[in-house]
Amino acid sequence: MQTSKHTMNTPSFQRRLFNCAAVGGILAAATFTLNAAFIQNPSFESNWNSTYPHYGPIDSWTGGSGVNDRSLDRGGPFHDNGKTPDGNRVAFQQQGGDLSQTISGLTVGQLYWVQFYYNTRGDVLSGTCDITTRFNGNDLDSITGILRVTAPEGTNPITVPFYSRSVPFVADTDTGALTFHVSNVGDRTALFDAVTIVPRSSNDVTIMNPSFEASGAIPGIGPITTALAGWAGAGVFGVDTVPGIYADNSVAPDQDLVAFIQGPGSLSQTISKLVPGTQYQLLFAYNAGSSSSPHLQVKADSAILFETDVAPVGGGNPFHTNLTTFTASTDQIVLSFVQSKAGSDLLLIDDVRLLGQTASSLPPMQVTPSNAELAPGQTVTISLVVPSEKLALGSADIVVSPSDTNIVRLVGADTDGNVSLHYDKGGATTKTVDAVAVKRGTASVNVTESAGLVVPNGVLIHVVESFVRNPSFEAAAAPSGIGVGPVLAWNGTGTFGVNHIDQAFAANSGPIPDRLQVAFIQGVGSLSQQVTGLTQGANYWLQFCYALRDNPDPLGPATDLVVKFAGQTLVTIPQIIPLSQAGASAYYFTNVIFSPASADGALEFDTANPNGDATLLLDAIDIIRREPGEMVLQNPSFEASGAMDLYIEGPNTAPLFGWTITGGGRGTASAGPFYDNGLASDQDQVLFLQGANTAAQVVSGFTAGQAYTVIYSINGRGCCGTPLTTHYAVQAGPPGAPVTLFEEDLNPVGGTQLFYRRYATFTADGTDVQVQFQHMPVGDKTLLIDNIRIVPGAVGAPPNLAISGQTGGTVQLTWPAPSVGYVLQSAASPTGPWTGDGAAITTQGAQRMAVVQPSQAARFYRLTL
């Protein structure tokens, strides 16, 4: 037998066949009480709601959001990626919640495996998705940071297998609730399929769906033409009850179902995490249909472990059983059951087990960090630690791959984007690889070849083109205890960390401005991050919220805050005191206007001169480019919540900084499913309003009787239903009584077109004005809003630019005169950053004109205030 990656070498590949009656001592320890199937409707094929998007109850299960059917053209919208593990349907749980079923008939003290397949919805990548498996309220296992299954470039995502999980537990009662608890941040959706429970021992190697119960008895038994969980089939194969039509004699060795192969064919599964040089015992039950005499071959890769002509046991006699012993020379094998006889003979298989040591008994690999937030061009170093116990057995080769090389690339990668790391036997356990951010989006870096080791996590990387990363400190869970620890995307000195709303510092400091977490600096310290992509000399707003922890310190806690960019002080705020002492009910807010001397620099928040136990809290940090003289809005481009997209269904106490939003679903997004078409005009995030609702803010500093113009970008979601038209109004006026300035029916811009830009003029009645967007749709429509500005005076849309080529490679730009107040800007992409072009502008008759010579292959131009 030739050596290959998945083949055992002849010298170390030993086979011994036993008559099971002669080895009763071996099998006695693995004998289990027979039961009917533990799980009902395990593959979710029983029922579904055919009305899009297929929310509804799930037969035999409590909870869950509904069932999606992959056999439809799209099958979703939730099951939108990955190959259906079993049958056509999968269950989905959107956002947080439980999917559970009461299980009975367990043997107290027996070890079982809960097995299932899982995935997440593909068109929402931001946020987090975690699944915790519970029995009788006890946590058995947690899977964190789940992303959609990874499809290599050029691969159809619906052909990539779901993830699989096998969770051991010892039954402490014969009846209890099996629960999959889904915990999500953002509009994430967990997908489930092929849920089974099988009795096993502590030295069983994981085989998925080993007793073929995952297909269930609904909608029927017989040949399977879609998918059989865990197994790849050839020829005519399926499942049947015993006695049934195909399995028409004997009793099922385990639970209700057995597999059958009719005529020439096979069932095979790749078994991983073997330890080379280790002996294994393969056990299985087999039979033949009445009046059949199939020929069975059992193979590991191409090596035949066992073969025989099979006679039916007849009546209610037990299946034949077999035990085969072999020594593995590689860390995985393809195990196959083959019916090789021509004709239509029926082979029956059930209760497949492999006993021996697994690599999963070794400590897992350590992969750090678990997540990162980077600007394009920035790098994170990933550390991969192989346990010394593994290297004591031999060398190891690990392959690391990004899920999308358009978003993240690995330094030193091959042409497929992969990096291979070799660990010598007995050598160093740690190696590193650098991941470089390319462009906005979310990707993961995963260990795709693990040398049989358990890999508990990949590295989730958000590439952010907004100026500030993790501005609201929501991108990672707050450290336990009082929250001291690293802050994603930020560097710190002194004592610093993040607090959730219910942790000590945040709970005693007033209502959090944005979402549910804040950063803190206790005593003297700092938080800083490198900001890139600013335009030197342009006008920017730096906005942030801050407070001081309220505590009974007799010294009267207070601190100074110094904010810097590129080493230059932007603002010093002295002697900050707790909100309760200042008589304030909301975090302090500051808007700092600055013009950077460089495009890149460190944004830094330093505390100094603290009195007593002074702890500063920070939230909703944002940088926005604005022109001099504009009215100050809070969070005008919706960047303060950060790249972890926020979705809120209906009324909720989690705030969106600066805005009061009432009505249906709402949130911020940098990509689908809500922001599913068009290009916004400022940084990454847009506000979306799903259904009938309003977004309002009271803005101060107006002069009564003076005209002002609200300028904003607007679009509609490309989904759902036809027509896609939605309706909204923009309003302004005294707080509590705004009036409509402009309203329209709106269609999505589509594709990658820029959002519509609108201008609405009003006259201020006083110093405070409520600006409001009211969404008034028919049906499930979603409004997208971005880049809101309020400027003095009555301003209309800028005139259109006309572009014509000239000799010598120059380009002439013309627009109508006088066009007072508009500035010519250019950028390398339609989303900026935009800079003053510097071209000389002349007036010729009724036209203004500029002649430019672009330095890039593509250059975009605009007129703006």
Write the layout of secondary structure elements.
Blueprint: E1 16-18, H1 24-28, E2 62-63, E3 66-69, E4 89-94, E5 97-103, E6 111-120, E7 128-135, E8 138-143, E9 163-170, E10 176-185, E11 189-199, E12 222-223, E13 232-241, E14 257-271, E15 279-288, E16 295-300, E17 303-309, E18 320-327, E19 333-339, E20 346-355, E21 366-368, E22 371-374, E23 379-385, H2 388-393, E24 396-402, E25 408-410, E26 419-423, E27 430-437, E28 441-449, E29 459-463, E30 491-500, H3 504-507, E31 517-531, E32 540-548, E33 558-565, E34 568-576, H4 579-582, E35 588-594, E36 601-611, E37 615-625, E38 646-648, E39 660-663, E40 666-669, E41 686-690, E42 693-700, E43 707-716, E44 726-733, E45 739-746, E46 756-763, E47 768-775, E48 782-792, E49 802-805, E50 811-816, E51 823-827, E52 835-836, E53 841-844, E54 847-852, E55 860-864
Parallel strand pairs: 22-29
Antiparallel strand pairs: 1-18, 2-5, 3-4, 4-11, 5-10, 6-9, 6-11, 7-8, 7-10, 12-13, 13-14, 14-19, 14-20, 15-18, 15-20, 16-17, 16-19, 21-23, 23-27, 24-26, 24-28, 25-27, 28-29, 30-31, 31-36, 31-37, 32-35, 32-37, 33-34, 33-36, 38-40, 39-42, 40-41, 41-48, 42-47, 43-46, 43-48, 44-45, 44-47, 49-50, ...
